[in-house]
Design brief:
Blueprint (H helix, E strand, L loop, with lengths): L11 H17 L4 H17 L4 H19 L5 H7 L6 H14 L9 H12 L3 H16 L8 H20 L8 H7 L3 H16 L8 H7 L6 H6 L5 H7 L3 H9 L3 H9 L9 E2 H7 L6 H13 L3 E3 L5 E4 L2
Antiparallel strand pairs: 1-3, 2-3
């Protein structure tokens, strides 16, 4: 246990061990997701202001978790946290540490964390459940690495979304604009501005086989998490996509099909839809005058949706015009 390490200054490895343990406790006791992110925020803010010994590091961590639970969900009794630490600290020590942390932070608990930005961007991007879990994995893995503290919470969240969409694209085999203008508008970041942070996230995820801290990886490698960890691992680089995907969706489509597929699609959508659900991809392909693959048709539709000329109705397989 961290409380048995001894006395000395806290370094990046000790912080990582603490965060990994917090993730394990968070999962075991089924705390809310926002509680985890607030806990990390409280720990880092306190450690930035106060020199903590190795012997009290775990105490700081468990009390920050307790404070976060009282703020973000229902209050858990202090006895539960005494047991979590195998009675390494008394109830009185925990209450004293709670007072010290709250006073140092001046009771400022309402702060924008990576979670707040991530949930906002997920809603804007209309991410699927699978893609959302991949984004959470990238983000949580990066939060354990102390070098990632140089990036703003909003930028970390945006980079996680970009990488998750990249994983989704690689899994589906479809090429489309990973960072449409809608995401750029709401996040206030261009794809190029996310490249450095995204590259570091990829490096962190690629090191999981040699990483001794496995709580986050094990959490997202589980079947109930859709093996998000495995899906994230297929993303090796963003470099190749930044140049190509910063061109418009129309340019990507034109290269893929060799024809003005967008114009044909817009003409098709002016006609009455064959069903109440709108146009299915198969029905659209039957109306095209040129020989275009299904993947190119779907990429063209996604491009038009990004530009606001089409919208998806009922499900991801049926489309209609905005008019």
């Amino acid at each position: 246990m961290l409380s048995q390490v001894g006395v000395g200054k806290i370094n990046a490895k000790m912080r990582a061990i603490l965060f990994d343990w917090i993730v394990d406790v968070h999962l075991k006791y089924q705390y809310k997701t926002e509680t985890l992110y607030l806990t990390f925020n409280l720990i880092d803010r306190y450690l930035e202001a106060v020199q903590v010994s190795q012997g009290t590091l775990q105490l700081v961590g468990i009390i920050c978790l307790w404070i976060a639970t009282k703020y973000a969900e229902e209050q858990r009794h202090i006895r539960e946290h005494v047991l979590i630490c195998d009675s390494a600290y008394t109830k009185e020590q925990m209450l004293e540490m709670e007072r010290a942390i709250l006073m140092q932070l001046e009771y400022r608990l309402t702060v924008p964390t990576q979670y707040d930005f991530l949930t906002r961007y997920i809603n804007v991007g209309k991410l699927s459940v699978e893609t959302k879990l991949i984004a959470y994995y990238f983000l949580e893995k990066s939060m354990v690495d102390i070098d990632m503290l140089v990036f703003k919470p909003s930028l970390l969240a945006a980079a996680s979304i970009l990488l998750a969409k990249k994983a989704e694209s690689l899994k589906s085999g479809l090429e489309y604009n990973l960072w449409p203008k809608t995401m750029e508008f709401y996040t206030r970041y261009t794809q190029e501005e996310l490249t450095e942070c995204g590259g570091k996230m990829i490096h962190i995820v690629q090191q999981h086989n040699t990483d001794t801290l496995q709580s986050i990886h094990s959490k997202y490698a589980a079947a109930r998490m859709g093996n998000a960890a495995g899906d994230a691992y297929i993303v090796k680089s963003l470099v190749s996509s930044v140049v190509a995907e910063r061109t418009t969706g129309a340019a990507v489509v034109a290269e893929a099909s060799g024809d003005d597929v967008r114009s044909q699609l817009l003409n098709i959508f002016l006609r009455p839809a064959p069903t109440d659900h709108g146009w299915s991809v198969d029905a659209i392909m039957g109306q095209l005058t040129s020989n275009v693959g299904r993947g190119s048709v779907i990429a063209s539709i996604l491009s038009l949706c990004d530009d606001g000329e089409l919208y998806s109705t009922i499900d991801d397989e049926h489309y209609a015009s905005t008019a």
